[in-house]
Design brief:
- This protein is α/β, with parallel strands linked by helices.
- 34% of the residues lie in helices and 19% in strands.
- It has 24 helices and 27 strands.
- Strands 22, 23, 24, 25, 26 and 27 form a six-stranded antiparallel β-sheet that branches.
- Helix 19 packs across helix 20.
- The longest helix has 18 residues.
- The N terminus is likely disordered.
Amino acid sequence: MLGSTHGTLTTHSRPARVVACGEHPRTTVHNTALPSEDTDVSGRPLHAAVPDLGRFFQPRSMAVIGASDSEGRPNTGITRRLIDWAERVGAGLHPVNPGRGTVFGLPCLPSVADLPEPVDLAVLLVADPLPVIEELAGTKVRFAVAFASGFAETGEEGAAAQDRLATAVRRSGLRLLGPNTNLNAFEKFRDDLEGPAIALITQSGHQGRPVFALQELGIRLSHWAPTGNEADLETADFISYFASQPEVGAIAAYMEGLKDGRSFLLAADRAARNKVPVIAVKVGRTETGARTAASHTGKLTGADQVVDAAMRQFGVIRVDGLDELQDTAALLARARPPRAEGVAVYSISGGTGAHFSDLAAAAGLSVPTLSAAKQTELHQWIPEHLSTANPIDNGGHPVGDWRGREIIDAILADPGVGVLICPITGPFPPMSDKLAQDLVEAAEATDKLVCVVWGSPVGTEDAYRSTLLGSSRVATFRTFSNCVTAVHAYFGHHRFTTGYRSPFDHAPRTLSPSARKAQALLHPGTQLSEHAAKQLLRAYGIRVPREQLVTSAAAAVRAAGLVGYPVVMKASAVQLAHKTELGLVKVGLTSASQVRDAYRELTDIARYEGFTPDGVLVCQMIERGVEMVVGITHDSLFGPTVTVGLGGVLVEVLRDAAVRVPPFGEDQARTMLRELRGQALLEGVRGSPPADVDALVEVVLRVQRIAMELGDHLAELDINPLVVLPRGQGAVALDALALCG
């Protein structure tokens, strides 16, 4: 962990400081210019509204509804903690309970109507918060917190009760945290720690404990928002708010589900604009995790592939473990931006260096070979038979004397090195003590990141507890994997936010003429015929083969002559999918007799299978290219999504696809292709020419435009196969399936 000196627990009401001792300010732009048009074609906002939560975390006055001082009652302990918290933040507190005259010596009011002053925050210690919310509607209370459970997390009846509560909150004009939340927002925060802080958001309070405990390692925390069921205030609201607070260096979140996918992406976009990293554990990678999360907070987890892609798209760093959340948030909150991409691995053991370097390189970190001149310089202090190429092995003895610091300084002076990592697999005093001290002193003298992995399972050694954790400039980890994860996220975050352009900048503000043409083809609840689906594509400038829809064998022969032999023939009908499996596609027809026979056979099969064909398509045959699939589906959280992958019969066999949530730009479309395992097919393999990737990217972007403009009117679009021709020749949609919403 990046640490600082230890102190006592007090309160978090102390004025925030942004810059840690020995650390330069992080460049943060909290008033980034936003597009002048702030809604897309559907009227949805293109930037996150930042709720003013200042008076939630720092109220001037508060009321506790249901306050108690009767021994043995749960509300009594909560009331006592709230009184203590109010004293720490300087807020007046008014107990409210019709059955009490005083509570812990404070005058107790019979109802909220008797409050003597405007109240910023009301804490509801009642089983049913709905009547209280209705009472608060006329009191100008700004915020309320509801601890009560038994809502959406319990099933349909609870979800209905939560809907009624949410409706009452909207009518009241106040903002609600909860229900099914806890006291985490009212914890004691240390105010003796300096530097950028971590702001914490959790949907399960207990899951935030490891991050909260970072304060005992010298890492500053500024806020904790336990969002519970999110009937009103949600994770996205707190991300937007925290990303706008100058003292916040990173946002750590534990999420079981999302209330609204778009709100989350807008909040993540604001954080990226402000260069504030968001690190998140998101439950729901498996069916078991998704089911358990839904039973805990009553939220949708979303299709995990879509969630994962959306997070990457907007720069949210997803980790799996709470230990990774701790370590990654601590590093990103306080470390300076990298000056170079190279990682130097320095150890007293060749085996340790090789092991760590292997893990780092496998994770995509750059572990460059040092220059011959730098290696020669290091051999002034390191025996010639040991490697100084990177990883750097000193053999042990140099760390015990003056040479140790010289080696560290020389490595950090290399312009290609942005991070120095020293794995210490176990304590070996006095050498490990001297090595730790040299690393701390070197870190104080450089603007580059210095990381140490202290591998001892004990953790009570003075070199670890005092020297390493006592430094605000050294990032100290306990495992190789967490160090690699955090450093990878560190480089990734700064690459992502350097020159960041919001995906929402690519959102169309007005409907195109193409949309008006396409809308005329759509009929609610129906599946378009292939011919109609291709008309939709053609309206958006997506190339389809030369083809004609015919209703007689003679017309089919004439069409084949116009299209040009060889041809493909397909039955066309609404609600007709999977034509190949039904024998409704004929390929490679080269004569009029074949065309006549194919027409009769296709219409007979279609009627036998229960379809009423609107005709038969006579299509140009495209014989050479890479078969891809591009499509649109709707996700329960994020709405329309765009997918691209290997097409044809490989779709269901390999399931090699990448997904994005609109809007996105050309850079993301190209990134989607790079994510495919079969990307090499587009580059040309076994003598085949490179495919026209530019044309494929253009199709992906045009399909995205379809998704954004047609929205819920188009439930699904499947272009399969889209044949990508050799470079410079374009891409052709050979088949398409479209389901209307």
